[in-house]
Amino acid sequence: MEGYPCELVEYRETGKDYVAFRVWESKQLVFNVKVVSYATNGNATMTLRNIKEGPVDDARFSIPSGYTQIGATGGTGERLSQRSDEEKKTSASGNLVFILDASGSMWGQVEGKAKIAIAKEVLTGLVKELPDDAVVGLVAYGHRRKGDCDDVEELIPMGPLKKEKMVAKIQALSPKGKTPISRSVRLTAERLKRMEDETTIILVSDGKETCDPDPCGLVKELKDAGIKFVMHVIGFDVTEEERQQLECMARAGGGQYYTAGNAGEFLAAAREVVEAPTFTGGYLKVTSVKEGEPFVAGATVYRQDDNKNMGSKSTWYHEKPAEFKLAPGTYACKVTDRSVQPYQEQEIRDIAIASGQTVEKTVVFGGSGILRITTVKEDQPFNASVTVFNQGNNKPLPGKSTWYQNKPAEYELVPGVY
After folding, report:
1. Structural fold of domain 280-366
2. Whole-prediction pTM
3. Residue 89 and residue 87: Cα distance in Å, rounded?
4. Residues 161 and 134: beta-carbon distance below 8 Å
5. Positive or negative CA dihedral for 191, 216, 210, 16?
6. Cα–Cα 20 to 30 A to 260, which of 119, 202, 286, 359?
7. How many CB atoms lie within 10 A of CB 231?
8. Residue ranges per domain, the chain?
9. DSSP states of 217-229 as a string?
């Protein structure tokens, strides 16, 4: 494509056969050369032309007056590579083993991006931040064969960290098969039997066990056998049933369970679990309320002195406040209600976090109204296109179709004139 070898990726909506997007991605450019989106009212194509490679003036990326940089990685917050040298010294006391889910379901998408792609990006960044003298191992499952419960592989045995090798192994994973969590944990535990120091196991999974009956019981059995390990679990975009099983494993392993519903939450959870052994900070819990009831909103925390993004989470996800683990300092938190148009955002500043303490904040949002639009021709509703504008600033809201699936176009709007 335009002279560059590209990988063609097709995106389909869950449960649908038709292609929604085709993307031609150049590994050389680390950029999409062509994107085609398919819609009932016509296709849209973006293609790069007259591509020239070379240095780019940093001034092109200067931040305009009145704006603040909050990261630019499509949902995962700031790039890990942009952190200072001091911040890159991520703690990892003792031994550390990653168990990665590479089952077929990891091709599922979160916010328009494959879960495996998000996992690779986040974990690659974490590995690069680990101390050079860290002792690390890597196990994966479901990455070689479909339908094989024995598809578990120790990709890197426990030993001194070789960052380039580990990153290459992570990047090479291609999800294919089942979810043999128990067998991956058992394989890992076998390697730890003769270890004198305690090992931290970090399991990343987007689903529950599909091969053996009781992974939680297995973890308890291994702990009772005297194997020295602590298991933390990150459940990435999981259902309530899947969460219960994974959380049970974390409890049985003496560790913590972390829920990640999107890329930003996965980044925050991954950082937190890697740094957990030496954490000396406090906690911030954020709840969003509308019409007297908690509801799901987006919360992002920043270090107040330099606007450093500390991660994003959803409030009231699984009916729990968004919880951030933070080093002592002063922070600000932006909470966004995305259920209304235009989005409503509120900010809390001067949040003081002290070691060993928990700070709880509640953000109250105002009510909203519903605008329903129906188009009629010859006394019958029919499908047409509608765009709603905020009359104060003439800013358009996303276009919708009237009478799509025999329903009016519906907008939930904040109070105002449209």
Report:
1. Immunoglobulin-like (2.60.40)
2. 0.49
3. 5
4. yes
5. negative
6. 359
7. 26
8. 7-53, 83-278, 280-366, 369-413
9. HHHHHHHHTT--E
Residue type, 229: F
The alpha carbons of the chain give a radius of gyration, in whole angstroms, of 24
Non-local CB neighbours of 221 within 8 Å, separated by 6+ positions: none
Distance between start and end Cα atoms, the chain: 44
How far apart are alpha carbons 60 and 193 in whole angstroms? 55
What the block records as the tokens of 378 is 């010859």
Q: State the CB neighbour count (10 A cutoff) for residue 7.
A: 9
User: Rounded to an integer, what distance in angstroms lies between the CA atom of residue 301 and that of residue 169?
Assistant: 32
Give the H or E element holding residue 343.
none
Q: Does domain 83-278 have CATH number 3.30.160.100?
A: no
CA distance 327 to 345: 25
pLDDT in tens, 242-291: 888 998 998 888 888 888 888 778 887 887 777 655 445 688 999 999 88
